[in-house]
Specification:
Keywords: Magnesium, Metal-binding, Molybdenum, Molybdenum cofactor biosynthesis, Transferase
Bound molecules: ligand LQZAQKY5, molybdate ion
Distance between the termini: 54 Å
EC number: 2.10.1.1
Number of helices: 11
Pfam families: MobB (PF03205), MoCF_biosynth (PF00994), MoeA_C (PF03454), MoeA_N (PF03453)
Function: Catalyzes the insertion of molybdate into adenylated molybdopterin with the concomitant release of AMP.
Largest sheet: 7 strands, mixed
Enzyme class: transferase
Length: about 600
């Protein structure tokens, strides 16, 4: 029998249950770093059956607790722990415990134990142990992780107990799909989460993304490169800090270092000076001070700094004005990054801050993922090369340039195949050659009802291809397939549709291919400054201009005419306004979600 559970948090909670000896902790010890690598921050709650203690006799915190403190909070600059004496004659209350977590610090709570609660769970089962299943008694089991030989009823999701990556995929999807049970009333349901399925070829945006991501395998090849070559590249493994940052406890101010005491008598005797890059050789005694510069090591015996502005020096002595707190203006060794800590996880894209951080640790050479290779071409009799004269009834090829620019910003190597003439033989030859050179081939045009056959025939011969109609505008037609291991994206011809489809479908695929953990597109809530229309059952991507209003909130309006051939609307915009499938009309003043261009365009 299970007790009802309503998640009080806005982040998901997922339990792991098993009979003892199944390897729950062993699995969690592998799963947690894997989920961290994928960018998920975890909180864990563990049910202990025995009278555990995390403190030791002799420690101050232990002695104070034994002296009668009901709660004992012990804190340092790296962690804090709250110990609460709460003797119960029953199991601890999970809802109460969840309430103690700081949910802004985690994306998911993993719960070990609490088998009887109706909590969504993964059951771990090892046939060799001969223990019964838990799922037969508990309808809250979402999946069973077991070994090959275990037989399961068909309807239950099976996971491989020895495949941590597969279990991590499941957990990641669970987090992606999670919707809090009570949302703030002003918040609109997140777009991109719908999952109605019309026909097999008619997909929601979310389904399109998921189908594509299932096919993407991250590149495995790595290159050992230096920091100078690392810009916008993906770290192939965790960067472990070889040093403490800062290396030693140092001053955050130009001023004076001394030992703090409850009743300090002034003035202090001035013993010398310590500059950044040097150290004071002696040990300071109470009542003594040294002049110290920002970044200089705090001398032995000292623990507090008073800034120069609040000090007066006379005759080899110094006295201070203003309030002084113990430890003020002191930067502790390792307070930024401790030696041995993961400074950046594998899968991190190296931007300016990340490169600076690696440099600050003295790391110069590191394994980076090979850059994905992308081949791009355009199709269509009317499509002309920029720089040549525009013939009657033709249009310049803009799509190849938007695609190349976006792919380069994602760190890809780009192979430009130009405009391919409308001939089956030429297309076939170009595609099969590109498949040997590139991880992904991207074309634009020729995928809607009228003219799909052409690409379809060629791709069907060379590999496999799906023509989808995505419930979205712009960007409804989308072709996706494979030639051997090379992915193929056939984006719709209209220039805005190309960019929106790239952002929504190609971008996540290229990020996964490059080795980044999959993540949700970054969506921000904004107040619509004008009414916006959509159609129920379709996700509308309007070009938007977001601004910070005088009320301190993000506001958004559209760029005006939204024709899917009007690239000027993309130039004016700084975000896409996304109106999900569930909404038909947004009134001025209501909240919508926006996807900022900042990262890519
Ligand atoms: N009967 C239907 N017609 C259309 C449908 C539909 O469902 N039923 N869908 C419309 C939608 S939505 C889109 S989007 C387009 C997509 O069509 P295609 O992918 O087949 O693209 P094309 O017809 O080849 O071209 C559409 C448009 O884009 C221009 N174009 C093509 N390539 C480029 C390029 N490289 N640079 C700039 N512009 C390009 C092309 O000249 C056309 O104007 O289909 C609708 N029709
Ligand atoms: O989707 Mo088409 O994407 O309207 O231009």
């Amino acid at each position: 029998m299970s007790t009802v559970f309503t998640n009080p948090l806005s982040i998901p909670v997922l339990g792991f249950c098993a009979y003892s000896g199944t390897g729950k902790t062993t699995l969690l010890k592998q799963l947690i770093p894997e989920l961290n690598r994928r960018g998920l921050r975890l909180a864990v709650i563990k049910h202990a059956h025995h009278n555990f203690d995390i403190d030791e006799p002799g420690k101050d915190s232990y002695e104070m607790r034994k002296a009668g403190a009901r709660q004992m909070l012990v804190a340092s600059h790296v962690r804090w722990a709250l110990m609460t004496e709460d003797p119960l004659d029953r199991d601890p209350d999970l809802l109460h415990l969840l309430g103690q977590l700081e949910q802004d610090k985690a994306d998911l709570v993993l719960v070990e134990g609490f088998k009887k609660l109706a909590l969504p769970k993964i059951e771990l089962h090892r046939a060799a142990h001969g223990k019964p299943f838990i799922h037969t008694e508990d309808p809250n089991i979402l999946a069973i992780a077991c070994c090959d030989e275990t037989k399961l009823p068909g309807e239950i999701r099976r996971l491989d107990l020895n495949n941590v990556a597969q279990i991590a995929d499941f957990v990641q999807q669970y987090v992606r799909d999670y919707r809090p049970e009570s949302k703030p009333s002003s918040a609109r349901a997140l777009p991109l989460s719908a999952c109605e399925l019309g026909s097999e070829q008619n997909l929601s945006v979310r389904q399109g993304i998921d189908h594509i991501l299932e096919q993407v395998k991250p590149v495995t090849e790595t290159e050992l490169l230096t920091l100078d070559e690392a810009d916008n590249r993906i770290l192939a493994q965790d960067a472990i800090s070889p040093v403490n940052v800062p290396q030693q406890t140092n001053s955050a101010m130009d001023g004076y270092a001394f030992a703090f005491q409850d009743n300090m008598s002034q003035p202090f005797e001035l013993k010398g000076e310590v500059l950044a890059g040097h150290q004071y050789s002696g040990q300071l005694q109470p009542g003594e001070a040294v002049r110290i510069m920002t970044g200089a090591p705090v001398p032995l015996g000292a623990d507090t700094i008073q800034p120069r502005e609040l000090a007066t020096e006379t005759d080899g002595k110094v006295s201070f004005s203003g309030k002084i707190y113990r430890g003020q203006h002191v930067r502790l060794a390792g307070e930024d990054i401790a030696q041995g800590a993961v400074a950046l996880s594998g899968g991190t894209r190296l931007g300016a801050a990340e490169q600076g951080l690696l440099a600050s640790l003295g790391l110069f050479e590191m394994p980076l993922k090979r850059r994905p290779r992308i081949a791009v071409f355009s199709t269509g009799d009317e499509v002309s090369q920029p720089g040549t004269e525009l013939k009657a009834n033709c249009i310049y090829d803009s799509n190849r340039y938007t695609i190349k620019a976006m792919a380069k910003r994602l760190g890809c190597e780009v192979l430009d195949l130009g405009i391919i003439e409308d001939s089956e033989a030429v297309l076939s030859q170009t595609l099969s050659q590109a498949a040997t050179q590139a991880d992904v081939i991207i074309s634009s045009g020729g995928v809607s009802v009228g003219n799909a056959d052409y690409i379809k025939t060629v791709l069907a011969k060379l590999g496999e291809i799906n023509f989808w109609r995505i419930n979205m505008r712009p960007g409804r037609p989308l072709a996706f397939g494979k030639i051997d291991q090379t992915l193929f994206f056939g984006l719709p011809g209209n220039p805005v549709a190309v960019m929106v489809s790239f952002l929504m479908f190609v971008q996540p695929a290229l990020r996964k291919l490059a080795g980044e953990p999959s993540g949700q597109p970054r969506l921000l809530p904004a107040i619509a400054d004008e009414a916006m229309r959509s159609r129920s059952g379709r996700t509308e991507f309007s070009r938007g201009i977001m601004t910070l209003g005088d009320d301190g909130q993000l506001h958004v309006r559209t760029t005006g005419a939204q024709g899917s051939g009007m690239l000027s609307s993309m130039v004016k915009a700084n975000c896409l306004v996304i109106i999900g499938e569930a909404d038909e009309r947004i009134e001025a003043g209501e909240t919508v979600y926006v996807h900022p261009f900042a990262d890519l365009l």
